[in-house]
Amino acid sequence: MIGGSLRLRLFAAGAVSILLALGLAALGLTMLFERHVERRMAADLTVILDRLLAGLDSDTSGRLAETDPPDDPRFDKPLAGLYWQVTAEPGGLIDRSRSLWDSQLALPADELSEGTLHHHRIPGPGGGTLLAVERRVILSPRLGGGAVRVAVAQDVADLTAATRDFAGDLLPFLGLVALLLVAASAVQVAVGLAPLKAVQARLAAIRAGTAERLGTAFPDEVRPLAAEVDALLEQRERQVTAARARASDLAHGLKTPLQVLAGDIDRLQAKGESVIAADLAAIGEAMRRHVERELARARRTGGTTTARAMVAAVAAQVIAVVRRTSRGEALEWSNDVPADLAVRIQPDDLTEILGNLLENAARHAAERIEVRAVAEADWVVISVIDDGPGIPEAQVPIALRRGGRLDQTGPGTGLGLAIAADLAEAWDGALTLGPTAPGAMTAVVRLPRAG
């Protein structure tokens, strides 16, 4: 909708302004044309009027008459729209054009100075409106003296028709101009908003991990915004670094008490207090996993946006560690990951994810564990497949929940899969669990692909 789009708002405002301006221009030009034609018409009527004045003389009977009437054929055709008449003061009508037939021009009763030209809009004999010019002159003694009013009038229908024709010719041209101006407005809006598109692209690059700051390559109006965003990013990095340091200090501070607790557990076992030692060992393991979880979070929080990890190398490293355990030695391992496949994540975080998944797979696998990875567009899909009993679909949310344990008989705290899911989500990825076939279990990690 227009209310939600700055581009459409600017375009609509520009288009409306253009149409209003051209509408006013069309109205103004039409009015100017009408006034010009009216002045032209009045000038032509004045020429005829001067000729009528020059033709006033005595006829053969000694009566004042128009001896040289204009030769325009419209003066001879009744109600043709062009008229003239001569009236005496006083005495009334002296002469008129045949086009008036049996009517007279209804001239206003105004005071006329000698020789002054007056313009009037008067009703015509056919019911229309006439533009009339008249002049009052004093006759010479030879013509009997006295004053006469000579008037020439023309129907304004011709003026109206000319104005209408002009408007008809003008509107298509103004329509073409409107289209060009609206197109130019669209281009102007696109060019004006291009810097915002560049800001969006830079922010997307920062989010994707290919850039760290917006920079200053923007117009003067946008540069302050970019500077504020960069300052905000810098302030956030400082806050994140401080938070990371505090979390790391807290986690490391708990390691020493855990080591002391481990020593106490060993002494209890030596004294034969195996039940108490087992309970304390479980509590200590839970605390250790919580510490590892917080350390993993601290590493992610302080990670750079240009992180990169090679999947094959990390998978090989984790497999080498897990297969040295008592459970891992009895299993067959497969690392089917392309050597050049990279993901956008810190190597330590990928190690944490794969370590938790492979430890969990080794605990439940019967004979074989396989690690695969494929690229899908902008993503890398890493699969850890074991031939264990699997997890029912309804219990998958429990396995991914903090402290969720489906097997309460074996060791563990129920945090491994939750830590892996949290780390994957922190890097814009996801962890899913589910059976791929009867007797097989798959943990799938989707992570952004690194360029």
TrEMBL record:
<keyword id="KW-1133">Transmembrane helix</keyword>
<dbReference type="InterPro" id="IPR036890">
    <property type="entry name" value="HATPase_C_sf"/>
</dbReference>
<dbReference type="GO" id="GO:0000160">
    <property type="term" value="P:phosphorelay signal transduction system"/>
</dbReference>
<dbReference type="InterPro" id="IPR003660">
    <property type="entry name" value="HAMP_dom"/>
</dbReference>
<feature type="transmembrane region" description="Helical">
    <location>
        <begin position="173"/>
        <end position="196"/>
    </location>
</feature>
<keyword id="KW-0597">Phosphoprotein</keyword>
<feature type="domain" description="HAMP">
    <location>
        <begin position="190"/>
        <end position="241"/>
    </location>
</feature>
<protein>
    <recommendedName>
        <fullName>histidine kinase</fullName>
        <ecNumber>2.7.13.3</ecNumber>
    </recommendedName>
</protein>
<keyword id="KW-0808">Transferase</keyword>
<dbReference type="InterPro" id="IPR003594">
    <property type="entry name" value="HATPase_dom"/>
</dbReference>
<dbReference type="GO" id="GO:0005886">
    <property type="term" value="C:plasma membrane"/>
</dbReference>
<keyword id="KW-0812">Transmembrane</keyword>
<dbReference type="InterPro" id="IPR004358">
    <property type="entry name" value="Sig_transdc_His_kin-like_C"/>
</dbReference>
<dbReference type="InterPro" id="IPR005467">
    <property type="entry name" value="His_kinase_dom"/>
</dbReference>
<dbReference type="GO" id="GO:0004673">
    <property type="term" value="F:protein histidine kinase activity"/>
</dbReference>
<keyword id="KW-0418">Kinase</keyword>
<dbReference type="Pfam" id="PF02518">
    <property type="entry name" value="HATPase_c"/>
</dbReference>
<dbReference type="InterPro" id="IPR050428">
    <property type="entry name" value="TCS_sensor_his_kinase"/>
</dbReference>
<feature type="domain" description="Histidine kinase">
    <location>
        <begin position="249"/>
        <end position="451"/>
    </location>
</feature>
<feature type="transmembrane region" description="Helical">
    <location>
        <begin position="12"/>
        <end position="33"/>
    </location>
</feature>
<keyword id="KW-0472">Membrane</keyword>
<keyword id="KW-0902">Two-component regulatory system</keyword>
